[in-house]
Amino acid sequence: MASKKRLARIFAAAIAAVTLTGILPAVPGDARAQAYPSKPVTMVVPFPAGGTTDIVARLVAQKLSEAWGQPVIIDNRAGAGGNIGSAMVAKAAPDGYTLLMGTVGTHAINASLYAKMPYDVVKDFQPITNVAAVPNMLVVYPELPVKTVKDLIDYGKKNPGKLNMASSGNGTSIHLAGELFKVMTGVQMEHIPYKGSAPALTDLMGGQVQVMFDNMPSALPHVKAGKLRAIAVTTATRSPAMPDLPTIAEAGLPGFEAASWFGMLAPAGTPKEIIAKIHADVVKLAKTTDLGEKLAQQGAAPVLNTPDEFAAYIKAELAKWEKVVKASGAKAD
Prior knowledge:
Number of strands: 10
Largest sheet: 10 strands, mixed
Helix content: 40-55%
Distance between the termini: 78 Å
Radius of gyration: 23 Å
Number of helices: 12
Oligomer: single chain
């Protein structure tokens, strides 16, 4: 009997040692999710501070920090149309502590625009939720003598080579919206890519460039301040944030539509329990705090679909924007 008890103690000690060294999981999946997060979380924004991706990410990060009792730190890693920051997350440990605020550019457009990608849009990420859909806004330098879509088309055709079109970078929805406009109108505009919306808007307000199809949240404050003139929105329907502003389609270019979206993703292999918790918490915060209201004030419509729905949406967007890229002839420099 004594020997059996001794063997039992040895066996129990061995199991404990194996668990502590990580050979066996210390806790089941649901307990792991309940313990998350136990340290600060980094949310990578693959564009500079001040742009729409950054604005949406900071709104979400603030609310998650308050709910979790752990800081959610924004890390701006700009460059290559969002590819640099996105690749960083794709290669990060799949533990839920490095997240990405991805965009239609990083997860739908770039795959067709760039000859070589540093990550696989589908295989290297686990979608969490599409946080918000955002219209792009056609804005111009206030001293440019145009007030409508028709004015811009007429001016562009009468003044070839005089329009410079800013974007937040090659392959972004801002870039592709402008390329689509050029294809549909025949207006020639020189594309000037920037490393994010903020520096592009600065030059637009200064007159170094004349036109931009910027995301509404980053352009709207400058429009309200009178520093930019808004011409139209790029979505199929008008935006509640500016209901008097026509769509490009209704203002003279039927069939034109180009919108942006911003969604949270984690590295592939992140535990499903953690993905489910992040999704549930973001949805809850949008319903129980002013998160949804603040997104709407920026011109962003909350989506908050499930991880599976978001994954399916990304695949559909990849196919859609591949056609747009080919039709426009746009390429990354």
